[in-house]
């Protein structure tokens, strides 16, 4: 069987990028971002991207790099705060935005991986977010129909992987990454550590290797703190 392990982030993305594609990018704030793969997407020059992610990074970090290079034309996201470039491009009409409640975004991605084309949720019913979407009443409550999300490529960050692609995520870095790994035609994973076959307890696998196409070890692993909150130390 052909190895899933690639020598570099650039090699791991070779042959899978094209103009107009849809990319899912893991992460929540600055946690669990595919830090090593995003710069290679920028370097490729691929254009007219639709990107599905909880948010679009922060100043000078994460997906912000692809906004800065004007490679993203549409974002499907749940949070747009704390990113001035995102705000500027959206308000100027340069960037299309599909705003989705956070839980609904996660469920749309999960549905895409599970092969469920649509589902109903009470979240957003009766608001601007439900405009143009079918709605029905169940047990006296209004529900809006949401559709699955799928992508050409998912870029995912994990803590550990074995050669088969079985993944373990670390704490909150798990966030959207496992769901995205199931919902794309090609899934490329950057990991902090590649461990020998058989060294991950099957009960501890968060994402089975069947969903993973390519693996590469991180070249960037900054783990930035988005907002550092401190308080004065009490006098002893």
TrEMBL record:
Keywords on record: Transferase
Keyword Ribonucleoprotein: no
InterPro entries: 3-oxoacid_CoA-transf_A (IPR012792), CoA_trans_fam_I (IPR004165), NagB/RpiA_transferase-like (IPR037171)
Coiled coil: none
One Pfam entry name: CoA_trans
GO molecular function terms noted in the UniProt entry: transferase activity
Transmembrane domains' residue ranges: none
Gene3D superfamilies: Glutaconate Coenzyme A-transferase (3.40.1080.10)
Entry superkingdom: Bacteria
The protein's name: CoA transferase subunit A
Organism name: Sphingomonas olei
């Amino acid at each position: 069987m052909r190895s899933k392990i690639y020598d570099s982030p650039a090699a791991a993305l070779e042959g899978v990028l094209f103009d107009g594609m849809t990319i899912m990018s893991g992460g929540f704030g600055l946690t669990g971002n595919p830090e090593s793969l995003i710069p290679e997407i920028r370097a490729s020059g691929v254009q007219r991207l639709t990107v599905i992610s909880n948010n679009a990074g922060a100043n000078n970090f994460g997906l912000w790099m692809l906004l800065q290079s004007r490679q993203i034309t549409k974002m499907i996201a749940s949070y747009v705060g704390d990113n001035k470039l995102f705000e500027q491009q959206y308000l100027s009409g340069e960037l299309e935005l599909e705003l989705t409640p956070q839980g609904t975004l996660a469920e749309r991605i999960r549905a895409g991986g599970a092969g469920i084309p649509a589902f109903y949720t009470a979240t957003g019913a009766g608001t601007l977010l439900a405009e143009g979407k079918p709605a029905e009443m169940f047990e006296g409550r209004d529900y809006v129909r949401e559709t699955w999300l799928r992508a050409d490529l998912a870029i995912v960050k994990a803590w550990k992987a074995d050669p088969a692609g079985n993944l373990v995520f670390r704490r909150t870095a798990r966030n959207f990454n496992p769901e995205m790994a199931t919902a794309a035609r090609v899934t490329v994973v950057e990991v902090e550590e590649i461990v020998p076959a058989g060294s991950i307890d099957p009960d501890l696998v968060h994402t089975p290797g069947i969903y993973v196409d390519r693996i590469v070890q991180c070249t960037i692993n900054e783990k930035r703190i988005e907002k550092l909150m401190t308080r004065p130390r009490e006098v002893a």
